[in-house]
Amino acid sequence: MRISITEKSALVIVDVQNDFLPGGALPVPNGDLVTEPLNNYISFFKKKNLPIFATKDWHPRNHISFRDRGGPWPPHCIQHTTGAEISGKLVLPPTVRLVDKAFSPDKDAYSGFQETTLYPELYKLGVKRLFIGGLATDYCVKATVLDSIKLEFETILLLDAIKGVSSEDSEKAIKEIILNGAIGIVLEDLIMN
Fold it and tell me: Is residue 15 annotated as part of the catalytic site, yes or no?
């Protein structure tokens, strides 16, 4: 399917942080492979001077999602650590808008919209179409995309710029996302005008 980046579009990059990349505290298999395709999308959005957002887990040391508090995950993306930083392989412009999520000790948040500044900022900018990629397909990408659909954005999933924890769960997540109304594309599907 061919699709264009309109004047009311924004790019949302989900959680491409050091801890989710190889060598990190909670690495997504081949998670680093999203950086090159995302840089291509970033380049297109920069050329059109359109907004680019990057969400990040910003956990306190005692976050509820961590195993020592009964959660499913090892400690990761702890505030003010190298693991929480966005990957240096992403060529983000100085104008990128960073969105912290899951920063309360007793509340988890997979979606980039959950108790964050993302929706108010998009609304203020008059954005109607969201292009979403990042990590991980079966967790934070899925939650962010499904919320985007619920919030009535025209939602585009960047199939060549996502990786998941489990390939089986990621396939299920993509099917669910498409069934709920998102459009799945790869870079070659973009109409550049």
Answer: yes
